[in-house]
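JOB MANIFEST
job_type = single_chain_structure
chain_count = 1
residues = 284
[input]
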Amino acid sequence: MRNTIKSVIVIIASVIGFGANAQTKSESNSLLWEVSGNGLAKSSYLYGTMHMMCEKDFMIPEKAKKAFGKSDKLALEIDLDDPAELQYMQKMSLANEPLSKVLSKEEYQKLDGFLKETVGVGASQFENSNMLSIMSVVMMKALSCPPKMFEMEFLQMAIQRKMETIGLEKIQDEVTAFDKSYSNEEFIEQLKYYDSKLFQDMSKVYNSEKLDELYAMVIDKKFMDDNTRHWMLDFRNENWMKSIPELMKKESVFFAVGAGHLAGEKGLIMLLRKAGYTLKPVMK
């Protein structure tokens, strides 16, 4: 079960691309935001995660633990405590068609060469895998260290407290967004940017809590054009906003989602403010 959940989180990480070296002016250096006002009985919290990083770099700040302790419910992108979601994840890891039929001859040869160089096996070993499964393997290889995952840690904390866990969407929603975002050619081109330095750079920025700089890394043009940004971030944020207000109306919810969803004009912080809520960075 733990390996299945890990696979789900790797898929979630695959859905959000990572860029590097872009910077914007930061509004507030915090990954944790308090949501209050607009008739809420209690404050809720919005926490930006990095779906996976090296164990040596991993930490949950005390302020996040305190906010979690005040919350009544945990909301993740995907409900990792839902057996149906985990079963779907296992099914969708297998492709409907063989990889050699999905890709053109040129695309297959390019992917084959890349996989042999980076993973050590050719495309034939992934003949019955889909693109997201291949990307998850490449990402795990690029991380090159024992991984830790925020979603897994928060889930365990919730289980210990007998705290209800919910998902803002289904894994199928994420897969659909991915399919609408990348052509096979774009997907293969993107793979070459995943390496250990990328994760190191992102982990450093993440742990410094420079939210807007982190957002700029996520939307780097190597990974996201306007179409990709719409489906991977903006569209999903808007969908989540259809349920977030009702979820936190009568109880405190700890929302833990990828940090790339928080910032930007169409990020959750701005969308919640436009909906009438007060968003305040929690600094300590």
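[summary]
Residues 18 and 218 are 5 Å apart (CA to CA).
Residues 2-94+130-281 form one domain.
exit_status = 0
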